[in-house]
Design a protein that fits this description.
- This protein is of the alpha+beta class.
- About 30% of the residues lie in helices and about 30% in strands.
- The chain has a single domain, classed as Alpha-Beta Plaits (2-Layer Sandwich).
- The protein is built from four helices and four strands.
- Strands 2-3-1-4 form a four-stranded antiparallel beta sheet, with helices on one face.
- The longest helix has 12 residues.
- The two termini are about 25 Å apart.
- The relative contact order is 0.30.
Amino acid sequence: MTYGHELIICILNAGYSDTAMDAARKFGARGGTVAHARGTASKEAERLFRITVEPEKEMVLILVETEHRDAILHALYGAVGQDSPAQGIAFSLPVDAAVGLGRADREQKPAE
């Protein structure tokens, strides 16, 4: 099955959402939504993955055309990945339908 859009979700330490969006815009993202979140992890998980879980997180949600997904994910990894102070992770989910994205939506009429 092929999808026209992907939802990229980037979870990172608070204060780095602008850095993530700047990186994503360079590769085709037009905008995103930032949601405030709280991280949780056990001390064992922190040791295993060699990370420190900061309680204050931000989630950046970016809906993109599928053709831009890989470039944006790589840009996010470089800008706000685990080796940066943002300690971000990013992944994508396929989107099988979307509306409100621009002119193409207005040209399509619902089936009767």
